[in-house]
Amino acid sequence: MQFILTITNTNRKNLFFVANDSQVFSVFSLLEALSEVFKNNVDNTYIVNRKTGSYLRTKPSVSKENELESISISAPSLFLAIDNTYAVNYPPILKRYIDSYINVTKNNGSYITPVGGHIALIKNIKRKILDNKKHIFDSADYFNIDPYLIGAILIDEIARLAPFENIIDKIGGSLVGRNISVGLAQIKLQTANDLIIKEIYNPNIKDKKLPFLKLDNEARKYLYQYVNNPKHNIFFAGAFIKYIIDFWSAYFDLPKHTEIIATLYHQGYGKPHNNPKPNERGKQIIDEFYPIAKKWLTEK
Q: How many angstroms separate the CA atoms of 207 and 245, rounded?
């Protein structure tokens, strides 16, 4: 196998390595990557041992475009790219990674393509939806909203995150340093904290640290543990949908226009008025993903 992408900190130190080996993407920490190279499992890479520690370097015979420095992206840049609604301005190295992901995914089963995003395997999305079926219905009951709408929004968010799923799972909260989106429902940490402040949903009312008056790095890392939990993540999604509906209630009856709710979910709750319009992503969530969610969630 060989490394096709590396994730660095802001000082350009490699922290995580993404490898492609026979249709499988694997993500390694630095220590794990060193072990793989030591066992000769990685092509074109060797170990440099110094007093300050051990490092990985690309062999001299490798072309410049495939050197470790050329295939690196900083964690903040990666999170920024993932947070983009439409993936049109990715850095070149991320585009190369996406091309590899698409080539592998096309050979592994049926897939869907979210508007502005990349293909995602249906079997993987369905598994995640069914694994969290109880949380979806519990969240819908708690906030008195449509469970299939939650399911449809989750399908969109899961599909959109699919190219980066293994990377994010590996990185976890170790590099949380900005207002990133988290979990199946892609809840921003600031949004979660705001929902706690507004007393719409609190994942742990006994935790005196919640909510935070200001989200600095330490606060984000702390809150991340709650927001990344699948149950709380889906409850935060339900809470945000409920907040959007209530926020617009004096101007527009959103429950009768779910494509608007689906649009506002990823655009933000906006400024209420009496003539909102859905975007293409919101339309796809309702026209394509809502029937799929209802089918999966009602299967015996």
A: 28
Residue 87 has pLDDT above 70, yes or no: no
What the block records as the tokens of 130 is 């069914």
Taken as a whole, the chain contains a residue count of 300
Helix/strand/coil percentages in the chain, nearest 5 = 50, 15, 35
Determine the Cα–Cα distance for residues 46 and 56; give it in Å rounded to an integer: 6
Cα 270 versus chain centre, distance: 22
Structural tokens at position 142: 């708690």
pTM for the structure as a whole: 0.92
Structural domains for the chain: 2-106 (no CATH), 111-298 (1.10.530)
Nearest to 189 by CA among 156, 159, 228: 228
Spell out the residues 6+ positions from residue 164 whose beta carbon is closer than 8 angstroms to its own: 78, 82
Question: Can you list the positions of beta strands (E) in the chain?
Answer: 2-8, 14-21, 24-29, 45-50, 53-58, 72-74, 111-112, 120-121, 181-182, 187-188
**Does residue 291 have a cis peptide bond before it, meaning omega lies within 30 degrees of 0?**
no
In three-state secondary structure terms, 1 is: coil
pLDDT of residue 25: 84
pLDDT in tens, 107-138: 889 999 999 889 999 999 999 999 999 999 99
Q: What percent of the chain has pLDDT over 90?
A: 68
